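Work Package 4 report. The design task specified in the project plan requires that, given a folded chain encoded as structure tokens, an amino acid be chosen for each position. We show below one input record used in the internal validation round.
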């Protein structure tokens, strides 16, 4: 979905599970065929404890980080492609402590606290830290949605209300005001919202995630580009979730949404030698285009 696309139409767009899943699929290349930089493998592992308990202000793993019998691995990027979306909503639950514990019991702690921040098996996190991380994720996502919807008023309100939550929100809010540095042009609300969202997401990915490569000879005499795999690893679940959002951001120019059925449309080339699809494509197929035109005639 390109921003220009959205500006030309009145549909309201929100990022849903399908959008996150489609963004991950785009990273694998067109129809899973090799890309010029190799095949992307978005399947890093993450540890989860068998049981978590809540003690006062803390959510704690019932097994220590060294007790391997109490932990198992799963692949959050592919098994739960919209984890970032789910995580961003937890802070809004009326019974937040229970909602946070339910999330952790299903997916694990987003990160550890104090000395455990870099551990791949975090054993505890305070409810306050969980709340702030979930809220920050929601603001970053909602700011991005306000840009897709060309809703400058919503963007400005969000930055004003949550500017103290993150340095990037505060800096971008200040850059929107008339009292910025001399000889500088203030950002528009949509520019500020886009910059704030991207800065927060990119900062998390830079701190918590790493890209690498591997060579996989899974067939005799492979094509060099198909043998090279681009892999991702992350320090903790928070890194994996922000990587999901980062892929949404960098894939936005290759995704649109059908005006008739809201199905996601890939704007990438149908095959490596083909021309890229038009960025203003409005319908997923001829049937939706015709149905849309018929409905217009009846109104």
């Amino acid at each position: 979905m390109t921003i220009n696309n959205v500006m030309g139409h009145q549909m309201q767009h929100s990022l849903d599970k399908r959008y996150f899943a489609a963004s991950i699929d785009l990273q694998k290349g067109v129809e899973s065929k090799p890309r010029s930089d190799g095949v992307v493998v978005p399947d890093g592992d993450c540890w989860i404890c068998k049981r978590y308990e809540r003690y006062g202000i803390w959510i704690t793993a019932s097994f220590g980080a060294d007790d391997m019998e109490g932990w198992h691995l799963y692949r959050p990027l592919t098994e739960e492609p919209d984890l970032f979306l789910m995580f961003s909503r937890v802070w809004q639950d009326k019974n937040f402590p229970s909602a946070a514990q339910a999330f952790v019991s299903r997916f694990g702690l987003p990160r550890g606290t104090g000395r455990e921040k870099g551990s791949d098996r975090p054993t505890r996190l305070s409810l306050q830290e969980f709340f702030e991380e979930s809220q920050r994720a929601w603001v970053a996502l909602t700011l991005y949605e306000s840009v897709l919807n060309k809703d400058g008023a919503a963007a400005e309100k969000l930055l004003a209300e949550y500017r103290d939550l993150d340095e990037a929100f505060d800096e971008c809010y200040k850059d929107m005001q008339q009292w910025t540095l001399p000889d500088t042009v203030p950002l528009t609300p949509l520019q500020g919202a886009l910059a704030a969202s991207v800065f927060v997401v990119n900062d998390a990915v830079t701190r918590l995630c790493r890209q690498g490569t591997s060579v996989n000879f899974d067939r005799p005499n492979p094509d060099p580009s198909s043998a090279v795999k681009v892999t991702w690893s992350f320090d903790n679940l928070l890194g994996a979730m922000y990587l999901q959002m980062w892929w949404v951001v960098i894939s936005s120019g290759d995704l649109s949404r059908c005006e008739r059925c809201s199905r996601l449309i890939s704007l990438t080339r149908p095959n490596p030698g083909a021309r890229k699809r038009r960025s203003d494509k409005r319908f997923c197929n001829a049937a939706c285009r015709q149905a849309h035109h018929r409905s217009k005639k009846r109104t």
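Confidence is low (pLDDT under 50) at residues 1-10, 30-37, 264-280. Validation will be extended to a larger panel in the next phase.
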